[in-house]
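Components:
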Amino acid sequence: MNYIEHIGKYFLMLGQVFKRPQKMRIFKEALVRELDDLGNKSLGIAAFIAFFVGGVVSIQTALNVDNPVIPKYLIGFATKRSIILEFAPTFISVILAGKVGSFITSSIGTMRVTEQIDALEVMGINSLNLLVLPKIIATVFFYPFMITISMFLGILGGYVAGTLTGLFSTTDYIDGVQLDFVPYLIKYAIIKTMVFAFVIATIPSYHGYYVKGGALEVGRASTQAVVWTSVVIIVLNYFLTQMLLG
Amino acid sequence: MIEVKNIYKSFGEIQVLKGISAKFEKGQTSLIIGQSGSGKTVFIKTLLGLFQPNKGCICYDGVDYDKMSGEEKRELRKQIGMVFQGSALFDSSTVEENVMFPLKMFTNQTREQMLERVNFVLKRVDLVNANNKYPAELSGGMQKRVAIARAIVMNPKYLFCDEPNSGLDPKTAILIDNLIQEITDEYNITTVINTHDMNSVMEIGEKIIFLKNGIKEWEGSNKDIFITNNKAVTDFVYSSNLFKKVRKIYQMEADGRVKG
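Structure:
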């Protein structure tokens, strides 16, 4: 099957996903489960990465800002801007594409190869609606919250790294962080996050749902899903940046 | 009753089912047998609507499945129970949650009512004190019994089983066969079983359909199978020496040469 066919099949899949849930009781249980599996269980890794990436960004910025003419508060400013614009929404999303994406593909793929999806279909249940829609809702509504925490932790990480290494003072850093705060950039980051969250929920689901074969094919599908999700995130990042900041 | 009229099913260039017609009566256990690759699983999945036939029709109680509205199809699905070859239990749900799932999906019963029904069917399949276990913690036979419990929890009119004895030891396989037969008789349901277990054929095959290369080669009962001269059937069913001897003894009993 070529790329165009896959894209068409993906959008046909979305047509089945976005239907009214057949039973709200079951849907709500599935949603709570996905919020825990895809959201809550990803908080730790997102926080960890954000903190350390923030530290690295502030150190690297400090080491590159060695011209005495350039004020030190720009380190905090650059760290803040980098984390809000790029490291929190895009970098964390690519990490989640790996962690969450592989989980989604392997869980749905395993359901496919063990006929659990057939069991749902035989019962007359729209399996795509039941399996994928809760994932979309969970990621799209939870990830902005996660990315906001990541932004805070990234900036904090920058502060801790800089002050521990003595590369800049607390006052300089905080002055930089507070300098020229543009609320729209947070909105931009949240919009990007929500788009990426949709991609993270749907592309791996597509790969898992249509897998054929056994454990090996599920593993392959999982790898492909991560690769394609990451590629789509990077490409969308470019277009969203053009549209929202251009 | 399920009536199948001249169905054809192909996947690309490969014609898997070629003009199969059959009737499956209420309260009867019908077995579909045949070699691997004869089209048994495709046939049963086509009956279930998981595959659309290229030609022909499938009628449930006289109503053509293809002509049913979406609502009618959904109502029909509530009346179908299916036991898959690998049980197809939901791995992340307990036994209780697995069996309760159709009730949660299709009824507005309270949790207490659903639990009562779940415990009833689990007792019926002789599986008590396993409510909180996960499928991975169960043996193959126990998983099959949970699958049967889930299939009958909604009091279905039709029960489909795809190789229900697959992977089970002979004693457990007989228990599963007898359970399916008892449930068929007790609830007067139309049961269709896909199998290549000859013990099942001999024990519970009230009606047997033999498929070969996607064609219905032979149809009869488990009594007829002892006396048929259809070479394809005899080559398949009596491929082992044991069953050759069984056939000989049956024929001798029928002739009166040996007391039964």
